[in-house]
Amino acid sequence: MTTTTLDEAVERSPEEAAFDAIIEADSRVEPRDWMPEAYRKTLIRQISQHAHSEIIGMQPEGNWITRAPSLKRKAILMAKVQDEAGHGLYLYSAAQTLGITRDEMTQQLIDGRAKYSSIFNYPTPTWADMGAIGWLVDGAAICNQVPLCRASYGPYARAMIRICKEESFHQRQGFEILLTLMQGTEAQREMAQDAVDRWYWPSLMMFGPPDDESPNSAQSMAWKIKRFSNDELRQRFIGMLVPQAEILGVTLPDPNLRWNEETGRWDMSEIDWDEFREVLAGRGPCNAERLQRRRDAHEEGAWVREAAAEYARKQAANAGKAVA
Ligand code: 3HC
Hints:
Structural class: mainly alpha
Distance between the termini: 62 Å
Radius of gyration: 22 Å
Helix content: 55-70%
Number of helices: 14
Mean pLDDT: 95
Shape: globular
Bound molecules: 3-hydroxybutanoyl-coenzyme A
Strand order of the largest sheet: 1-2
Strand content: under 5%
Low-confidence stretches: none
């Protein structure tokens, strides 16, 4: 019978030691490097959820492209929604470097097995929602995603650089829509405030559950995928919003929101985590509609995939003939 000493049991293989050294040195793990299976799975989970969020996230704003109040607003909104499609594609590509296919990820989404951000399950009944989404949702996305430009996985970190640049433009265009409305008529100001009231709390939920209820944070931070905890980023976001709300002249809908000198944090009302859990469980205001729209789009796009596959087959056959 062989016995294993404790030292032998905890001894790392050369691959594990090399991986740990990359993380320790704040360097990047690349697709061909060895990585622990749990690291790979965590990345596939986070990156694919992120990609799905970008793709589903096109719907609430796509809803307004045909009704934008001017040609200029329409062109800007169309460019923004196209940017989100691009973000989804970079992110699916980054996830593919980890050994999952785009088809598998798409299937998980349309079967309802994959998560995507809770925020995209809320309706967009007014034009001011385009402003509130840009200001609050893209603002939250920037807070959460700028640190991801330093994520330890190279393809993800590099994709995030361009995504964050584009998100900054999205945030500014949302701010500018709200500013224009706030400088308009009483009815326009009310519409802007109403949109801020509806999007404020869901935008805080985007950062995920509180730290003591976030099962993935500790390990993701140890691996330097996440650099800050959910609550830390939520606090930063509030700090960013408060002076901007003043410039806009909108009120953030939390009577208990104030800076606490002693703790160095924002005091605030409790987030409605029951609502968050309901949305994650598929019972938010628009979950069913969003998924159905995605399924329909996938079915309607079948002929494009077939045509592309047939074209690729012909190209390959022709290349074969040329060689022969
Ligand atoms: N919506 C849906 N699911 C959420 C969520 C949210 N707002 N917040 C957390 N969750 C899920 C997690 O995915 C996790 O689910 P799983 O374990 O079944 O996969 C579970 O709730 C527990 O949460 P954790 O805090 O433990 O999970 P993470 O460590 O992964 O942290 C996160 C959650 C902060 C969202 C992190 O995954 C992250 O930073 N992801 C990358 C950014 C991203 O996906 N953003 C989505 C918005 S996309 C966007 O903003 C588009 C732009 O154009 C507006």
